[in-house]
Structures are given as structure tokens and as C-alpha cells.
Predict the structure of UDP-3-O-[3-hydroxymyristoyl] glucosamine N-acyltransferase.
Amino acid sequence: MKFPKPYALKSIADILDCSYVGEDDYQVYGANEIHVVEKGDIVFVDHPKYYDKALNSAASVILINKEVNCPEGKALLISKDPFSDFNKLTSFFKPFKPSKQTISPSAIIDKSATIQPNVFIGNDVKIGKNCIIHSNVSIYDSCEIGDNVIIHSGSIIGADAFYYKNRPEGYDKLKSGGNVVIENDVEIGASTTIDKGVSGSTLIKTGTKIDNLVQIGHDTVIGKKVLIAAHTGIAGCCIIEDDVTIWGQVGVSSGLNIGENAIILAQSGVSKSLDANKTYFGTPASDIKKKYREMAHIANLPKLVKQLNDVTRNK
């Protein structure tokens, strides 16, 4: 999430009503989560376990709940509740803007695109050449659709991230200020949902084809020419590299990397990152040759148990 212009550290501290360590006019350019943070950005951290990661990240400003030694060349914002203050920044720089029309007048839609009836297109959306957006699709604010993209009926592009902090009084939502970017020649099946990034972009790269009823979580990056079959769920902050094939009813945990040309067979559960150029199956997913050997051994267990019992009885 980049700010519309650079802000002085003191100005950001005034927005948050918090103290700070650093020069008043120290320049701040945006606010991002740790996995997408860049120089000039604010990153938040509220647990000692992650202090070092945040302080040593690319972030220039650390929004933190304890005054610590400030790394050289950086600044601190001292907050009682960094999670809530990060939400304040999102609300200030990316406030929710209610739509007054089904297709926002601020949307930029190429004349060659086909928009079917009952499509919702939010504020500042961009839609490229020769796209077909079928009925009952919803495209939330600031999402970007490239050329030759087909989005089938009932799909939702840009819903909020599923990201909550568990507090004694209930779950506190981290507000989403990012978007979804869909590159050229992508097809998205019916009733598929792609969540926006918390502060950056959820990205679907050129040539990828997504089936019906697929869920893609916030800040995930799907590479070029990826195939994803129905009922697959991919959690947030994953990287699916180019030419990966994911068959039906696969589940992928958050923050994982799937290497290029990997194939994940149907109903697999992916709980750790997977190497490139291999085929995977099972829960937890592992190399198919290994998994089939394990299944063969399991199938032989009744026979082995019977043999063991016969030996025991004959003693």
C-alpha cells in the first residue's frame, strides 16, 4: 500500500497518536506486511518473537509495541496496539468508498470488453481489451484485469483477506487495503473467489486457467500458465510458480511455495513447500512414488498381521 505522496514520520505519528523514534521529517512512502515490505515502508509487529524479523526487514519504519534499539537509518513508531494502528493507516489511506452505481464511473473499461448484465464493477477498477465478464460477477475496488480475460458467472474478485487477531472479546479483523491483479489471457471459472492483498496485490499471471469453485487467498501469487481444477483452496501468501498443475479438491496451507512444473493430484493436502518438476499426492502431499510405496505397504499390513498371528499361535 503506497501513499499518494511521501509523509513525514511526525505526520504519521500524529495520525496514529503515538510516539516515535527518528527525525520529524523522516520520509515514509507506504505501509506493507512483512512479506511484501520495501524500503520506505512501515511494517507492524506486536510479538517479541517477530521483533528481529521486522527490525531487520526492508522496512524503513517499524510500528512496534515496545521501544527497542532502532537500527541505523530506520525509525520506530511506538504503539500500544500495532495491529489496530495498522488498521488506522489502512482506513486513512485506503478508506472504504461506497458505490453509488453498479458500474463505477471511475472504472476504466476498454471499449472492446464485454460486460454482461448484473455485473458489479467497483471504484477505480481497470479492465483491458477483449475481456468477457459474465453475469453476476463482482469486481471490487482498485482491481486490475488485463487483456483477453474471461471471468465466468458468480465469481468474486477482490473480497477482503481472511485475517483476524484473536482477542478476549472476539476476533479483530485486519483491514484489507490491497487489490487483485489479473494479467492477460487468464480464464476464471464460475463461482471462484480471489481475495485482495492486505496491503499489496494478489496476482494471477498470464495464461493461467482456473476452474469453477476455487478459492485463492490474500497476497498469493499464481504464476504463468498454471492450471487449477475445481474445489481447490489456496491459502494466503503462497507462491505457485509457472506451469504448475493442481487437480481437484487440493488444499494448500498458507505461506507455501510450489515449484514450477509441479503436479498435485486430486484431494491432496499440501502442508509444506514442494519442489519443482515432481508429481505429488496424498495428505500430507509427498512425491507420488514414495506415496504409492507407502500405500502398498499399508495394503500388505493385514497379510503381515495374519502371518504374525499364525506364527504366534504355532509356538
